[in-house]
Request: fold
Amino acid sequence: MAKRSRYAARPAAKPGIKRPGTAATPAGGLRAEARSGGLTEAELSRAAMLEAELLERERIAIADNARRRARTRGVDVEIAGDPGAPLSVRAAHEYAYVARDIRRIGLTAGLMFAMLAGIWAVVNAGGAGLP
Reply:
């Protein structure tokens, strides 16, 4: 006994329905427009040219973005981007922001210590807070 199904056969399986782009030529192969999605050689070459142009624009944009980020960090772009430079030279330029941050931390700590010393002098030498 054959297994029954509730659903009708798939539309593509029905006889008489033809799928687009699958028509065979008399030689038995597919037509040229079915293989390439209906594009001519001129259209394919134009698409390849546009793709190459877009990739070049994207490469330039990425390089500009890297230069802009390097400038904001204070890194010399020529040395940081040179793969032939020694690692110590690249690291010295790459981590210049660390030295700048250490100086800022030291300045902040010194300012806080000076404020604390001023408050101590007002409280102890000025007699503030004593009855």
Remarks:
- The CA atoms of residues 22 and 30 lie 7 Å apart.
- DSSP finds five helices and no strands in the chain.
- The chain has two domains: 29-85, 95-131.
